[in-house]
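Translate sequence into structure tokens.
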Amino acid sequence: MLERVWRGLFGPPARLRPLQQPETGRHASWLELFFDLVFVVAVSQVAHLLDGELSVTALAQFAALFTLVCWSWLGYTVYADFFESDDLFYRLTMFSGMFGMAALAVSAPHALDGGAVPFVWSFLAVRAFLLLLYLRARVQVPVARAFADRFLLGFGVGAACWFASLFVPDSLRPWLWVLGFAVEATFLWVRNGQLRALPFDSEHIPERFGLFVILVLGEAVLAVTGGIAEEEWSVSPVVVAALCFGLAVSLWWLYFDHTRTPRTRGIRSWRTQVYIYSHLPLALGLVLVGVGAEHAILAAREEVLPQDARVLLAGGSALAVLAMTALRLTAGERRLLGERGVVIAALTLWLGLGTSPILWVAGALTLLAGLVGLETRAANRLGGPEGTAEGLPLEDEEQTTFGRCAHVMRGDPVVALSDGCEDCRRLGDPWVELRVCLTCGYVGCCDSSKNRHATAHFHAEGHPVMRSFEPGERWAWCYADQRYVDPGVEVEGAPAY
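Result follows.
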């Protein structure tokens, strides 16, 4: 009854997207792109913290708040990769989260300057709607219940730290925020029995992070245009603006042509974790370059480029290259690591050189453009840019998803012996979802059901592989290897729904 009412009001329940029938070319949805626009506004607002005189305190405050904004974006992105749907409930919850993100953007510049309370409430609103989405997934997606529980606990404890910060002195609030962030980050390391190979979409996630980088690079381009708009058009500002735009182009080139995606779908995999987390310092570096570009353009007529601009441009570029090098390592690629290290060291040394704005920015651009040239030459020798992971070594099989399993007997389709769990029917109990044995065709209820007959069948008969018997799902679980596997064969029959 409740399920029928839910479907009538909000549409079909959530599903675990990577375990559905394989999707070809899944791309970011229009709703995700709309959400990204709000994220851009938040990044722009936080960047205003660097408008004044640069100091270690200002840099630290900017880095902390920027990381929190990116972390909020990441929370919704990971959820959408697993459970995105197009029903009314999902849309309304995402729109509410977007409004909370907009409030976060407005309050972020004053979070450490007497405006902490609105900032905390905005962050709590963003977290509350994400928790609501995971609660829905926990109820409606039994196979991902343990996964949802982990995120509910992590984000819930993190939100509790933020809520507690409302009742402590101003000097202690940032420490509770750091504690909340640390708790949430720790809980992304999912280590839980059947979830060690829980998949993410190998096409969707890289695209989302690619859009993430484009958005942040857009802030750098906006800073260049903003800087030139504030100056009278003359040779020096225009040349510096062109050189700064070249820095953004070089960083774009390095990321999109010379950074690979790791060949893994396991959410627990260290490669996946490094891939996700390395985008935070990458984005931070790109924003620093954008702000530094604006500083450099405004100082284009001075004899020596101010130290603030040098720190932002050189430090941001070095941090971005370092983060992209970490991304490269996740894909098992170690080519030109020495050359990248030389460029990072040279940018660090270039930071201390006081010379004219045009000469200084031209020198930094030479370093980055030179690295692009070396990478392009090396890639051409190997047959083209690194747009795919072709030829890279796979991780350990247990870290990948839908790998072949030696326990699956490939051949004719398996005939389901019934259209429901007969053992549950004899007991008069309902089931949540159904599984079918790929050895004998037995149909039993899942582990989220009261009786867990599918697992009981494995222990009684020793048949190791159970396939999902739910409409639209094509995955199996190997009890012997404790991982998701390719079902290998089709099933004849349909569940009684």
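Note: The longest helix spans residues 270-298.
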